[in-house]
Amino acid sequence: MKTIIVKSQEELEKISLDFDGEIYIEGGTKENPLNLKINFQYAVVIVRGSAYLESVYGSAQIRYVSDSAQIRSVSDSAQIGSVYGSAQIRSVSDSAQIGSVYGSAQIGSVYGSAQIRYVSDSAQIRSVSDSAQIGSV
Questions:
Q1: N or C: which end of the chain has fewer CB within 10 A?
Q2: Which residues pair with 73 in a beta bridge?
Q3: Strands (E), 48-96
């Protein structure tokens, strides 16, 4: 399987939409964050290490977010399979979905019609409002 490691927005934008392989997002900082808005239909997208993303939106899909990676906002119809390690997501909104949150991962706020299916271990969700749903804790 082909593998691409992404450290910058420019590298992310150069990836073909039909790329078939693994995309590891490891770049971005608070001063220069990355943004993910598209769904790589055939690729597995993983956010790891100390990656910093400003937003994940549109139809973007991520298999997992791990280590000390941070995402400020997950919105629209974006989907994340799991969030774990000490990963942090500041907000999840609109109709965004997260499958599971575990380990010592943290989610700031969940609102709109966003959904998180499963929360376990010492994972934390600080606030839930509107018609947002948390499946099982």
A1: N
A2: 55, 91
A3: 52-56, 61-65, 70-74, 79-83, 88-92
Helix, strand or coil, per DSSP, at residue 9? helix
Average pLDDT over residues 60-77: 98
CA distances from 60 to 55, 56, 80, 96 (A): 10, 6, 9, 10
- Contact between 91 and 74 (Cβ < 8 Å): yes
Q: Would the pLDDT of 77 be above 90? A: yes
CA of 82: how far to CAs of 2, 44, 88, in Å? 22, 13, 12
Mean pLDDT of 97-104: 98
CA 82/CA 103 separation, integer angstroms = 11
